[in-house]
Design brief:
This protein is an alpha/beta fold. It has one domain: Aldolase class I (TIM Barrel). The protein has 8 helices and 8 strands. It has an 8-stranded parallel sheet with strand order 7-6-5-4-3-2-1-8. Helix 1 packs parallel to helix 8, helix 3 runs parallel beside helix 4 and helix 5 runs parallel beside helix 6. The longest helix is centred in the first third of the chain and has 14 residues. It is globular.
Length: 241
């Protein structure tokens, strides 16, 4: 497997739609194919956003189960994570009830700590044996997560910066996360313009990293990627230097 000493997760679609890139995976079959391709290219786990029939992010059991089952069948043993993004169901109580109804569960799920009801959601997931990736978008979220009591039980903590994120901001948030002394590994990533610079910084700091069509549609040279595998291959090459 390429990049055997690198922990790289593939985020294969995100909240994007095929309007942004024709190869963006939406259906369970497309998600499975992209997950397999990303894994072959070097990704050790996959994060995806299940979609409804309209191609919009969904947390409904039927959509989550179809996506997870398709990827699991195509890539047995590959850890699979899903979003719990508040934008997909903007009601904290309803979100809890819907996620509680999942019968085909992912291996892990991301919980954005700045969103309403994040601690309760993390506790629900942990109680169901689903790993929690805490998504930390800024310093305030890092402090809230560190004080939540959940920090010691997370599978992973992700410092997630927007397109305007830079190394200095990353290091500020990373310092707060590290101060929590959670045993969870730390992953750093950016979005669009900040994606490749922060991936390089993750490598330089010995952190976990992620790449995929959720985070960027462009390769390091600025050309448009033809899919997730090319992004993963480019990331493995950069992190191997």
């Amino acid at each position: 497997m390429p990049g055997s000493t690198i922990y790289l997760k593939a985020c294969i679609n995100g909240a994007r739609t095929p309007d942004e890139h024709a190869a963006l995976p939406v259906t369970p079959e497309q998600l499975a194919a992209e997950a397999v391709a990303a894994h072959v290219a070097g990704a050790k786990a996959v994060h995806l956003h299940p979609k409804d029939a309209e191609g919009v992010d969904s947390l409904l059991a039927s959509d989550v189960e179809a996506a997870v089952a398709a990827v699991r069948d195509a890539a047995p043993g590959l850890p699979i994570g899903v979003t719990t993004g508040y934008w997909a169901l903007p009601d904290a109580e309803q979100r809890l009830r819907v996620i509680e109804s999942w019968t085909v569960a992912p291996d892990f799920a991301s919980v954005n700590w700045h969103e309403p009801g994040s601690r309760e959601l993390a506790e629900l997931l942990l109680g169901r044996g689903i790993g929690v990736e805490a998504g930390i978008f800024h310093a305030e979220a890092a402090r809230s997560w560190a004080a939540s009591g959940v920090a010691a039980h997370c599978l992973r903590v992700m410092v997630e910066l927007g397109a305007d994120g830079d190394v200095a901001t990353a290091d500020e948030v990373l310092a707060l996360v590290s101060a929590a002394e959670s045993p969870a590994p730390i992953l750093l990533h950016g979005l669009d313009d900040s994606c490749w610079p922060l991936l390089r910084h993750a490598g330089a700091r010995g952190l976990q990293a992620r790449i995929g069509m959720e985070d960027t549609l462009a390769l390091p040279d600025g050309s448009v990627t033809d899919g997730n595998a090319a992004l993963v291959s480019a990331a493995v090459e950069l992190l191997s230097r």
